[in-house]
Amino acid sequence: DPGRVLVQTYNPDAEPVKRMLAHDFDGFAKQELEWRKALAYPPFTRMAAVRLEGEHPEQTAGVARFLGNLVGRHMPPASAGVRLLGPALAPIARIRGKTRWQLLLKAPTHAALAPLLARLEAALADVPSGVKVVIDVDPGAMM
Questions:
Q1: Tens place of pLDDT per residue across the chain (143 aa)
Q2: Which GO terms describe its molecular function (predicted)?
Q3: In degrees rounded to 5, what are phi and psi of residue 96?
């Protein structure tokens, strides 16, 4: 259907943006799937994003480090293919005066992620009320 689409990007010369503007869905999908396979991103793996947000930057960073250390201590052997990225500041590190951090877990299957996610969920009882933590399995967005 006809319509108007607004695109906001920091990189208007990026190949995915060019393909989208040219209405090249097949080229976009082919390139995106190749990129996702090479980087072990969904749909070729399972992913969980652990997002943290808090008004006090030091407290939020401390909780992110605590959760990162917890996951790091319970990682399966490297042969299981589970990877932890972070903790790190979120791509958009501050929104509405709150500091944002994230951890990303990637694994070949959901079964490989499940024990780590269970430990994370159990640890949320120890997180101060000033820090909000959301666990998003197979996130639709990474911002």
A1: 788 888 888 899 999 899 988 999 999 999 999 998 998 888 899 999 999 999 999 999 999 999 999 999 999 988 888 999 999 999 989 999 999 999 999 999 999 999 999 999 999 999 999 999 999 998 877 76
A2: 3'-5' DNA helicase activity; ATP binding; DNA binding
A3: 50, 40
